Structure formats: structure tokens, C-alpha cells
From TrEMBL:
Taxonomic lineage: Bacteria, Pseudomonadati, Pseudomonadota, Alphaproteobacteria, Hyphomicrobiales
Name this polypeptide is given: ABC transporter substrate-binding protein
Keywords, in A-Z order: Signal
InterPro entries: Peptide/Ni-bd, SBP_5, SBP_5_CS, SBP_5_dom
Domain Solute-binding protein family positions: 75-410
Organism: Alsobacter ponti
Top-rank taxon: Bacteria
Family: Belongs to the bacterial solute-binding protein 5 family.
Primary localization class, coarse: periplasm
């Protein structure tokens, strides 16, 4: 959609839910009933600002955001019926739908959006949304259905729409307890949660989208292993699997099951805690740019489904630069040269552990590959395998030397990468405050304030990419699909989400 049209508002340009649907039956053609979905791993909490992959089965089912993106990245209305970016790009005025109620029965108002913005702007409560809020100065409630967000300066259009899409509105009455109890306006309500076993969602009878959700009830059954979830699908015990591994997805696709791939891949990143041990040394960290056998990682961990990358961007990102893949290809000799330049003794270079998510088979496999590559360079490290909540806690709180972890938002405006914990520019839970890599922080800020021509933006992207490989606190290896969905033949109506989150409001059974 042209920039000029969006600046003038979107009245009369509304796109229906069908624009987001994958090929197949529409919601109106499907039958309801009870949908059984296998998920891999239990959720963290009900806060939509906790943008962890384990929460992806819930966010879009319990909450709605202000706007949405179609699979090809076009912004379309959701809770916001209209939005207008000011001619000087220093604010956006958002108009809300009038027919939306939270699951508590309270109406959606501009005050509710303001309360959500306040939470997002809090460095402790805002979680993954906090970094995305960095360009917002304040906001003004214009009237009960209108709110204006004011920026610190001119903001790129895509940065503005990314925030509106990322912001799931929370009922003010439930903000303080949202981790334990959902407080959204989404298509489903919480029926039951049994920790580590299942989550039951019930159809929201007051949901604002016509004829949605299709099904009356969804049971999300927690599986600790992908193989068990796949077996449940094959036996007919579940109708869908969300979060399948690439290897299982390829096998079951070839066996005749539906494989649904969304438009929002993750990038696998070797995360480095540059405040610890030998990783304080820049040359030592930079050697890891060459110590990643990316092709082997992609084959072993993801059955070849994905792209090799040396930067944290999907190929569709405007900051993507394929030349880095060749410049930082696997090269033991270049790595050894940087290790020698580091001046670190051999014993110190091996004095750390690689944290491994033992609940995730690809992470185990790729960690073993890296362990072998490091040994070729004279670095002998141990694998610290942890499971489930223990691993997640260590990952999010920075209790590791190095670890593999996927990052999202890599198909959006480049500053969105800072919503991921390792890339946060402030209040970084791993690297601390102040940020130990100011060149990277300055480069992110420059991208976020550049609204000029394509050449100006490209220069900002180039500077950001250079700062990332030089700081080397995070070494990308490949893209991969999160939220790979497998389904029985009688299930249809899949909605493709730009972040590959699970969207169930349009899913039903074929007649």
C-alpha cells in the first residue's frame, strides 16, 4: 500500500481476515467443534509482552494487536480501524474500533491503549516491547476512541507500523496480574491450565470478528518431545502439531500430512556473554564469526529448511547483505589468526561452557557441531545441557557463557531486532547497563532515526551490519521456521502470521 495512502488514513481500505488466510477453505465454509493441538513445551506466562517462542501458541489467541500484517508485509487494521502518520513523521494518530470488549466485559478505549503503552515503556514491565517503544516520547488520549503517539523525532513509517502490530492491548484491570491471568480481547478465553500438561481455550462469545472463532474449544496439549507430538498426530490423538522440528515436518509432509510454513522465520544465533571470561576479549569473540560451519548447522539442525546467514536478518529484510555470508564463511585458519591476536593463553580460551537447550533437538545437534569445530581451532569446551524452565531462566537472565538461541522480528524494520534479549540496547539482561558495545547501540539508533532516501537508509544499514560483526556478541548462523505446523487433512482455514505465531480463530474442520 503506498505510503501516501497510509498517511491519509485507511478508511475505506480495510482488508478482511481472508487477506491473511493461507490457501484453503475460508472460515465461513468450515465446521466448529473441539480442536486438539500438540505444542512442544509449556508456556512461560500470559503476558503478551513476553515474546518468547513458547508463548507463541497463546498470544494471538488470547489477545489482538492494534494492526496486523498480511503475509507479504502490508499493514491492515485490527483493533485500530484507522491510523494516520503526521506529515512530519513525528506522531501517529490511532482510531479504535467501537465494538470491541475485553474478556472481562470492559470496552476497548484509548485509556486502555495508554495503559498498555505505559507498561511497554517501563524497562522492567515492558519486556520485549520495551525496546520497540524507544522512539516514542509520550502519548495523548484525544478522545475515548482516539490516541496519538508522539515520537522523539521523525520515525520511519515501517518502524511505526511495526510497533502498532507488536502491541497487544491489555485490559487495564488485569495489567498487574497478566502473567498469571490473561487480560485480552482475543478470540478465546482461558478455560483451564494444568502446568506442564495442557491449556484449554474457550470460544469468546463476544469476539468482535464476525463468525470467528470457528471452533468452540481448543486443547493445547504440552509435549516435551517432538517425536511424541508427531506420533500423536499420526495416531489421531491430535489434529495439529504446532512447533514441529524441520526433520519431523519433512517426514510427515512426505507421508501426506499438511505442512504450513509462515512468512516469519527466526534466525539462529550463537549468543555470547561478552561480560564473562575469555569473551571479554574482542578478538576472541570475532574468531567465532569464522568458527560457525553454517552449512553443516543448517543440514543437521533443520533438515536444510532455511538459509545460511551471517547477519541477524531474513533475506526479505532491507538490512540483509548476502556478501557477509561469503566474507564470514567457515574458515578455521582465519579463526586461528584472530585467536592468536587475542593474546589469550590456550587454557583460558577453553575455560567456559556452552549452554545447551536439552529440550530442543536441533540445539543439541548444532551445539555438538560447534563443539567439534572449536576443537579444530584448539578450543575444548564442555556442553552444559539444561532442560525446560531451567534453560529458559538461564537464557533470559544471562546466566551463561555462550548459547544458541533463535531471534525473531528479522523480517521487519531492523531496529526490531533489539526486542530480542541479546540485542537489546538498554536494560540488556545479559550484557547489562551501560551496554558494553556503544558502537552497536549508536548504529541501531541511527537506523531508527533515518527517514531519508534509500541511499541514506542503506548507509545506516551498512554501519549497523559492520558494528554487529565487529562487536561479535551474537553470531548468526541460519534462518529457520519457528511454528512449523502439521495438520490432518480435515483441518483447514490456517491464517499465516507475520511472526509465525499460532492463529486459531479461523481454523476449523472441513465439512
Amino acid at each position: 500500500m503506498p505510503s501516501r495512502l497510509r498517511r491519509l488514513g485507511l478508511s475505506g481500505l480495510l482488508l478482511g481476515a481472508a487477506a491473511l488466510l493461507a490457501p484453503g477453505a475460508s472460515a465461513a465454509d468450515l465446521k466448529g467443534g473441539k480442536l486438539r493441538v500438540a505444542i512442544i513445551g509449556d508456556m512461560t506466562n500470559f503476558d503478551p509482552m513476553q515474546f518468547s517462542t513458547v508463548n507463541f501458541p497463546l498470544i494471538k489467541n488470547l489477545y489482538d494487536s492494534l494492526i496486523e500484517y498480511t503475509p507479504d508485509g502490508k499493514a491492515v487494521p485490527s483493533l485500530a480501524s484507522d491510523w494516520k502518520i503526521a506529515p512530519d513523521a513525528t506522531s501517529v494518530t490511532v482510531t479504535l474500533r467501537k465494538d470491541v470488549k475485553f474478556q472481562s466485559g470492559a470496552p476497548l478505549t484509548a485509556d486502555a491503549v495508554a495503559a498498555t503503552l505505559k507498561k511497554g515503556a517501563d524497562p522492567q514491565k515492558g519486556k520485549n516491547v520495551y525496546a520497540t517503544m524507544s522512539f516514542v516520547k509520550d502519548w495523548t488520549v484525544v478522545d475515548p476512541q482516539t490516541i496519538r503517539l508522539n515520537f522523539n523525532g521523525p520515525a520511519p513509517e515501517r518502524q511505526v507500523t511495526d510497533l502498532l502490530q507488536f502491541l497487544s492491548v491489555i485490559d487495564p484491570a488485569g495489567i498487574d496480574t497478566v502473567e498469571a491471568k490473561p487480560a485480552g480481547a482475543g478470540p478465546f478465553t482461558l478455560g483451564e491450565r494444568v502446568v506442564g500438561q495442557r491449556i484449554v481455550l474457550k470460544k469468546n462469545p463476544a469476539y468482535w470478528r464476525d463468525k470467528e472463532p470457528v471452533v468452540d474449544e481448543v486443547t493445547l496439549t504440552v509435549f516435551t518431545e517432538d517425536a511424541a507430538a508427531s506420533a500423536a498426530l499420526e495416531s489421531g490423538a491430535v489434529d495439529m502439531v504446532y512447533g514441529s522440528t524441520a526433520r519431523s515436518a519433512v517426514r510427515l509432509r512426505d507421508a501426506g500430512y499438511q505442512l504450513i510454513q509462515g512468512p516469519g522465520p527466526l534466525v539462529q544465533v550463537f549468543r555470547i556473554n561478552s561480560t564473562r571470561g575469555p569473551f571479554k576479549n574482542a578478538k576472541f569473540r570475532q574468531a567465532f564469526n569464522y568458527l560457525m560451519d553454517r552449512q553443516a548447522i543448517l543440514r543437521a539442525g533443520y533438515a536444510g529448511l532455511g538459509e545460511v546467514v551471517a547477519l541477524p536478518w531474513a533475506p526479505a529484510s532491507p538490512a540483509f547483505d548476502k556478501s557477509y555470508n561469503q566474507a564470514y564463511a567457515f574458515n578455521i585458519d582465519k579463526a586461528k589468526a584472530l585467536l592468536a591476536e587475542s593474546g589469550l593463553p590456550a587454557a583460558e580460551m577453553s575455560n567456559w561452557k556452552l549452554l545447551v537447550n536439552g529440550s530442543d533437538e536441533p540445539s543439541v545437534l548444532i551445539s555438538q557441531i560447534v563443539q567439534g569445530s572449536l576443537a579444530k581451532a584448539g578450543i575444548n569446551t564442555q556442553l552444559d545441557v539444561q532442560q525446560g524452565a531451567e534453560f529458559i531462566d538461564a537464557l533470559l537472565k544471562g546466566r551463561f557463557d555462550a548459547v544458541f538461541g533463535g531471534v525473531g522480528n528479522v523480517q521487519k524494520f531492523p531496529t526490531r531486532v533489539a526486542t530480542n534479549s541479546i540485542y537489546r540496547t538498554s536494560n540488556n539482561p545479559i550484557l547489562g547497563t551501560p551496554h558494553p558495545h556503544p558502537e552497536y547501540v549508536a548504529a541501531i539508533d541511527k537506523v531508527g532515526t533515518t527517514t531519508g532516501s534509500g541511499d541514506q537508509l542503506k548507509a545506516a544499514y551498512d554501519a549497523l551490519n559492520k558494528s554487529m560483526v565487529e562487536a561479535a556478541f551474537a553470531i548468526p548462523t541460519n534462518t529457520y521456521d519457528t511454528g512449523l505446523t502439521l495438520a490432518a487433512k480435515n483441518v483447514s482455514g490456517f491464517t499465516l502470521d507475520i511472526d509465525n505465531m499460532l492463529v486459531l480463530r479461523t481454523v476449523g474442520f472441513k465439512p
